[in-house]
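Review form for a predicted model. The reviewer records the input and the model, then writes brief findings.
Reviewer: anonymous (R2)
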Amino acid sequence: MSQLYPLLLLPEFYERVWGTHDLSAFYPSHKVGKEPIGEAWLTGEACRVANGSLQGQTLGELAEQFGKQLNGTLAPQNRFPLLIKIIFPKDKLSVQVHPDDDEARKVGLPCGKTECWYVLSAAPGSRVALGLKPGTRHPQVETAIRGRNMEELLNWVNVKAGEMLYVDAGTVHAIGPDCVLLETQQNSDTTYRLYDYGRPRELHIERGLAAMKEVTRAGKVKSRGGNGRVILVSSPCFEVDKMLMKEEKTFSTAAAPGRTSPHCIIGLRGCGIIESKGTVPISVGRGEAAVIPASFGTYSIRPQWEFECVRAMLPSVCAGEPETETATQLCAS
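Model under review:
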């Protein structure tokens, strides 16, 4: 059996009606066809390894083959626990909702979908919708869907680069145009589309209303940290931080006894060399993703001059819901 090592993954690009034809800011060499690209999946199960003896195999195949060695002790089943994407909207995404773990298991799914969005760039006036206006109830939502005015029931929040937004499962949400988001989520692609501005796509009203929560914790996260590392969000499902490195730093995938997690490194700016004893170093640049297997232990990142990256992992301790400025508070301020 091949041994694990730090994996450099190739992104998978997905066409979306609301996407863009211009990926030059992150993927200048990628040729966009007739249909726009909406998402680049960086740690999807179909993403293939670009380096070493496992080159060409998918992350999903390796998750099944290596189990907890790759996925960590906290991952559900033999599945890679975190799905990370870059979202490129040029038009509004549908109004949608994702089930939580309990609702997902009722319909035979392995997990729900709590997610977070780190804003990579945003044009002036860019907005996202997080949750329902205070007092809105399920019957009003169903009526608004039928009446094609559901947008009026949502909390629309302005966003700018550098902000982190937490979107817990059950939150009705939407993303407006002209903001590029780095999304970290539970590894589920279960989306119930409630409303789509009249576009001729399938809606999932019954299942969406069942999964929808009238009040959630969704909002802007109060990040914390310093000395080159900012904890963007810590939650029961994931921890995401951002680092600006000007010198080599060492990390471990075993931050607490019995709690191991893979580390996902996403390059934002510059270049970083990931090194570990007995393996070939790999280089990670802007828009690229590397996965450090959970069983790996110690590894280091050496910047080439400077390296800015986001790192996502399962929480090293039992974490509660993050402190947020909820959409209701933001809209009232």
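Findings: The first strand starts at residue 7 and ends at 9.
Further findings: The radius of gyration is 19 Å.
Recommendation: see findings above.
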